[in-house]
Records
---
Amino acid sequence: MKSVNFIFVLLLVSVNLFGQNDLKKKRSKDFKLYSNFDFLSKYLDCEIDTISGISRNEYVKEINGFNFSPSLVFYTKKGNSSEIEISRLDYSNKFNKEYTLLDSTGSLLNVISENTQKQFELYLRYEYKLRLFKNKDWEKIKPVIGFSGTPFIIWDKIDTLLNTEFKKTKTIVGLYLSVIPRIEYSISERWYFDLNIPIALATTHYTYLRNEDPELSLEERSKKNSDFYNTPVSLAIRLGIGFKI
């Protein structure tokens, strides 16, 4: 991810250097780079026992910071705009091993657990933004309100290396809807800051779980769940720097 962010920074600098001879032209597109601080509360999956009627829900709170996300902004003739953003793109491949050692010699006694875990996350955001107080002649500050939809996919797979454990896969596909108040502050004719607070109001998602344990029946190995909820509300604080192309 660091290399991807570095490439976007180089692109931003290159556009600035090669576009100095066209400063007076009216801009219809912007490039932005955000720094994100997320405070997320979410439900990951739900398991229901059809015999007892008892359900199990997983609720998670997360705080993420300093991750960067690029976007492109396209303006309309009325001064409003649409924005397309790669909010999060992450992949990891981990090796996990749990074992016991004999203290006196340090020799390996037995391996309790050994697996590889692969994870992939992709969040995209589309936002339509309305510029407020257009009749005000404010040179530096522009208040904006945005409405966005963020489709996402989360994939997690555990491949075990022991015969006593079994492969597990989890896939989550969903969408959350947000309202985003913004303040844009002009630094120069081309550069500006963008401070905004996305407020996620509603989320819908589909979860698919797969467990290859042979002791489970074919029906029990796969579990599916769809859900929609408008709580809890998730917040983020984002500071972006924009460049008029």
Note: Confidence is low (pLDDT under 50) at residues 1-25.
---
Amino acid sequence: MPRVKNNTRQYLFKNKLNIRRKSKRVLLKESFFMMLFGWCLLLINYFIPQKNELFITFKKNIFDIFSNLLEILFYSLEILIVLLISFSILLSLFLIVGSINRLIKVMLYKTRKISIR
């Protein structure tokens, strides 16, 4: 069975990092792709119609979302209260039926004597 080394955490990732620098060719390629991606994003933003109206109605939309969330919370609270009430009614009915059943069993208890002959 191989012996497991118990290294401390400070030596856990020692000699695992890539310390080599990137070549100029790789750096130029990455910068080209970054520039291309930036231009594509600008082009996409340019083709979005009515940008000014979107920025103007942004504040109103945020307030509408929060008001709708508050309504959802109030309605879900009412639903939870109704579920709690129905659960408590069912639980109380089970308890009452169980107690009546136990009372009947206690009152009508018959002794069973086994007679040995």
Note: DSSP finds three helices and no strands in the chain.
---
Amino acid sequence: MGDDIFESISQGIDGTYDEENRRIKEIANEFQKLCRLHEAQLRDGKENVNSYEIEQRVAESYAKSVGMWIPMGNIFELGVPGPSGNENDTYVSPSSVFKVNNLLNSKSISNLLDKILLHNTLFPNTKYRLHGFAGYDGRSVLPVLEQARICNAQPATQIMIDTYMSALGFAKLEKIGNYSNNMYEVWDILPRNVLIDSEGDIYVIDAEIKKL
């Protein structure tokens, strides 16, 4: 992705930060409740229960019911295709970067929603918004995440990243790009996932996070 692919965003936190986190929490809670109900119904009917398949079908039904369903044939309406990574295909619009997540790292939609909330807590200047769910009817469902674009930026060096993470209260671990404090461990904080803009602001655009 070129240096001009992102648009500069503020380091500050406004009301939309808390509002979006509340929205994601509400979606996660409703989603988990629907999964439990669906699983119970299948068990009562003596059907085999596959938790991944339950999540997929519940996600499709939920997304369609609340207007968050994106037919895969319409995916290019999100923006211009960008580079693909290990778990995301990206689509770039004038104001946003959309990431269609294949759940390869998260393993489940519930885990991904938890990860989004952790990312938004630690790195609010690159907060995620849950845009919707993409897929073909009755097949795999892929969450679609949205981040604001950042332009006039380039990959930060590892020394810059180490300094930034230290300022956030994280200590370096033995493996490069891995950090922890008394509450979280984060990894994959490498130049491919961290940008620095022309004003010297650092943006962690992707990370793996777990709560200790």
Note: The radius of gyration is 18 Å.
---
Amino acid sequence: MRRTLIALTLLLTAAPAWAGTELSLAEAMERALSGHTELQITALSRDQAQASLLRARSSWDPQLTAGLSSDSSENRGYIAGYPTSSQATGWGSSAGVSGTLPTGTSWSVSGRLLQDSTTTSASLGGVEGTPTTYESWSANAGVKVSQDLLALLRDSAPKIAVRTSSEQLSRAEAAVLQAEQGAVVEVASAWWDWAAAAQAEALAGGTLAEAEALERRTRAWLEEGRVAELELSRVTAEQLAARRDLLLAASRTRKAGDRLLVLLGREPGADLSPGAEALAWPVPSSLDAPEHLARAAAGNLDLRLAQLDLDAAHAAAGDARDQRLPSLDLSGTASVGSLSASASEAVSDLRGDAALPGYGVALDLTVPLSGRSARAARDSAEAAVLAAKLRLDARERTVRADTLAALDAVGTARLSLALAEARLRVAQETEAGERARVEEGLTRLDQLLLAQDQRDQAAATVISARRDLSSAELSLAAVEGAVVAPR
């Protein structure tokens, strides 16, 4: 698949498609654009549209026709009451080239060579006559051209078929871009879920290590008589809870990783870990609403599809209005023939004084009388235009609303991340203070355990806030049609 991401992605797609035991977000994007099932199906629909356009254009390709024929016949009759008989045989060959031009002009060039042999016998006055044989060769070459004189006022049927197929191809290409965007959004979301789960697992592992270390120190303090047995029980319970949380976090990581692998067309259970994120859809810090609304109006893929539908409906309405026009066909033919005793003479006689020229001109006018069919086609097409216009207007309003909502989501996600990071710093400082007081024997262990739990919650909130910000930026890029590079 010839697919590219936005400019930032282009700097990253040179990485190998699968690097060791780590899978970065950029590598996942490459896999999404080459192995996503729905994207492959949509690409096949585009290939079908390309084939349909090629088939429509083939109506202008010239055609070669050739033929051979042979015939034989016998006849009996009477002349002045005396019986006569005749036997005729013949064969012929013909060849020609014909075609139709985009202007609606039909043309043909043909040639023909015929041989006739007739044997006649008659009994006149009761005397059997001698059979007489006559042989002749005839040749003919001609050209015929037919043109609708009103073709400049309307498109011919083959031209309409080509335009319709081209419209379908444009829509299929936009649908491929839309499928690419959907694949990127789905895979990116799955990768972020996986990375967030892996970070949460690492956080749970660190928490368990701290709990085990604190349990060992509490046992030592208990032996020294610095703490009571209850403090050791409390620390042991927290260590067991940390161990359980690590198992749950590992399970979530595996689940998220398997979901991503399935989206990328790989078997679940592979031993992979999230690599560098590196890929992002940067959003300017200003979050200027008019600027982003203009981007969405120009690049939104749903809007592009709705506009293509409206353009196609307008073109079809024009075709329907043209059905009211009469047809005025002018046809002209020119030919030259010969009649000779041999095949070579028949062909050579097509030139010179022995040739038998022929010409013909015809003008045919066809006028629909009632016009009911044309009116019905026009009314149906105009209704389709109105429906397409209403859908486009509704989609424009939806895109504006989605853009504003996406901008709000990015702004909120940025503030939420800043708040989560600030609270994490406060929680870390609080934990450090509680740990120092425990070392000095100035506070109970439950205060330190509470501070550690609050620190872990703050760290988890930071992980979630970062994931939400990435998702919000991607959602804004999707509304603006900037997830994949337009073509």
Note: Strands lie at 22-23, 63-79, 82-100, 106-124, 127-128, 132-148, 273-274, 327-340, 356-366.
